[in-house]
Each structure stands twice: as structure tokens, then as C-alpha cells.
Hints:
The chain is of the alpha/beta class. The chain has one domain: HAD superfamily/HAD-like (Rossmann fold, 3-Layer(aba) Sandwich), CATH 3.40.50.1000. 42% of the residues lie in helices and 13% in strands. Strands 1-6-5-2-3-4 form a 6-stranded parallel beta sheet, with helices on both faces. α6 runs antiparallel to α7. The protein is globular, with a radius of gyration of 16 Å.
Amino acid sequence: MLGYFINLKNVLPFSCYNTFDDIPLSNYYKSGKKVLIIDLDNTLVPYDEEVPNDNIKNKLKELIEIGFIIYIASNNHPKRVKIFCDELDKENINIKWMAHSFKPFKRCYKWVNQDVKKEIPEITPKQILSIGDQLITDCLGSNKSNIDCILVRPIKKKTEKWYTKLNRMNERILLKRMRNKYPSIYKEIIDNHD
Length: 194
């Protein structure tokens, strides 16, 4: 399985929280983070919810008011991501998005980096923060792009697609390996993620 061959350093999260709501993003903004790349499925909403709930809408509005530039990067298909983001647009919550982002490959991270330079030409990867629920897609892709990634607990594993379930099997292997080599990070993940 893939989990035996991935370099553990490449999947270590910058930090872990139980939910997206629990992340003190205003503190991260004050510390220099200006851009958010947020995963959609099981990070913001479960796979089986098409549109953002009021809580997510209010949270994203608040983050834009703080000053964050926000991108949604999803490995899901365009129709799914468009329906979700169109609902945000109706509330004047303007967020750019990418479907078929192919995380952990660098495609979406390069896109964000190039796009955000139009507004903040001097932006660096260390000012970008990624948020997601998977070690193998979100953490691996972010780390390969020198972007810090916050890992959150998946909202609802029961509705995940088959390929995400495969990733979860590989995650379990990574966590077993991590328990010995990075015990404090392992504990943080388990306390917030498992």
C-alpha cells in the first residue's frame, strides 16, 4: 500500500483541529497568513450536502472581512463544486474555486500562487494556509508546495467515495508509522482527527 512508501515528513500537518470552526483563523491572519486554500468535501461540508449551511456562509464572510483571500480546491467534479460556490455567490461571498484539483499534485497550489499574485504581488507560500481533512491529498500536496496545512477531522466518513476510503486505509498505515517517529504529532492528530 502507498502508506508504506510515502515519506512521513511530507504528510505532517502544520497543526490539527477538530473542525473548520475550531481553527483560530483570525490569529493566523495576524501572524501573517493572508490566503486560504480550503478543501470542500468533509472539510467544509459532508459529501452528501450540496450547498453551504448558514454557519459556513457566515464563517467565510467573516474571514473575507478579516482580509483573507479564499480559494476552494476540491478533487471532486466541477458540477459539485460549482453548485456549492454558486450558493456562496448569491450571498456575495466571492470565492475562487478549482474542481479536479488533483491534490496532492501541485496544480491547484500553483494556480492559487499565480492568481493571488495579481492582488498581492509579493505573496510567498508561507503566507498561504491550506485546510483539509486528508493526510495524503491535503497535507502531502501542501507540503510539496511549501504551504502549511491544517488537518481537520473528516465531518462524515460514511458518505465518502471509494477512492477516499482507499486514502483512509493508507492514512492508517501512515499513522502507525508516525506513532513511533513523530509521537507528538501523532497524538495531536489522534486527539483531533481520529
